[in-house]
Write a structure and sequence with these properties.
Layout lengths: L3 E8 L2 H16 E3 L6 E8 L3 H19 L1 E11 L3 E14 L5 E2 L6 E4 L2 E9 L1
Antiparallel strand pairs: 1-8, 2-5, 3-5, 4-5, 6-8, 7-8
């Protein structure tokens, strides 16, 4: 669909999956100068399942990115389970915008854990 972008992510840990999803979304959204920090934010989320937590995570980063004009590229997870997330994210000022991502969606979303790998495909509304 012309108004959607998708990310397919494979990771060994849940933390790596959430980090890769955020970095992939940022790469699609634009470019920044990682030598000039712009914003550091603390994020605390609770959700009913891992899929909802992943979407809430990405949408929170989108919201904070729009508010601060930053792309978030560095993450320190204090706690991450299938239903809770506590993290610190560091954003860097947007130097060039590629795509205006409106939201991460639930379209065909599943997070699978199979043979030691977490796998998901995330559709982003642009």
């Amino acid at each position: 669909h012309t108004a959607d972008l998708a990310l397919r992510i494979e990771a060994q840990t849940l933390e790596d999956l959430f980090r890769a999803a955020a970095l992939g979304m940022a790469a699609l959204a634009g470019e920044s100068d990682p030598t000039v920090p712009g914003a550091t934010v603390d994020i605390a989320l609770d959700a009913g399942d891992v899929e909802a937590l992943l979407i809430d995570w990405l949408n929170e980063l989108l919201y904070l990115g729009h508010e601060t004009h930053c792309l978030f590229l560095s993450f320190q997870f204090e706690a991450l389970t299938m239903t809770q997330l506590r993290a610190c994210a560091v954003g860097f000022p947007v130097a060039q915008r590629k795509a205006h991502i409106k939201a991460a969606t639930y379209h065909n979303l599943t997070v699978k854990h199979d043979q030691g790998q977490f796998v998901t495909e995330i559709v982003l509304d642009v």
